[in-house]
């Protein structure tokens, strides 16, 4: 048990709007609900935007965040190194950057498309068309950061654009044929939500249309949750979301994994479970 409600002071760091392409309101909503649910549990929550958190050198024993700005992540790492509990961990957020995520998922045997990591200052060598070319050094910020190509000429054009924008490496994923399924989860809880984005018009950049109409191939949701929970452990992001492709035979392969997404379709239920996750981690840390 915690000593007193007053002793449980928690800092929340919201996500900068520039890191929520076409999802500013959705990201703000899930963060707000999480704050409200933590307050119901007796937490005293103080919220800071990313820039203010860094500029004022805010510190605290317990922090939850939707951070994406480089300076914020570096500040959170400092605090973690000094003993602060941070959910999601800044180290985990960095592991969700495309290159690191791809390397870790493949190294830990989590089902994933055939992939390559290549420099953008050379010609495109993989013979894997059609495929996806994705910026390797950050999350997707604009539509041009994730591009579907069908031939070498298109691939070279994408690499040239990446070079011009100062992106040194690209991740290349084989294009998988099947149903695109989005999922949200919260580690340490029973919460897991899946849906077909093409049916619910849930999209940042409209790229889901390339997969075509949903066919409704049957798949094992428990298996997807097990894969996802394992990925969240490997990447160290207990609040997570992602995308997978389900083949006609029911094979599941994860194609993307994100730290603290918007939970737009299920935010009321998700916010309660996120608060539960954060609260339980705080109480567990105090027992040590």
Automatic annotation (TrEMBL):
SUPFAM superfamilies documented for this protein: Glutathione synthetase ATP-binding domain-like
Name by which UniProt lists this protein: ATP-grasp domain-containing protein
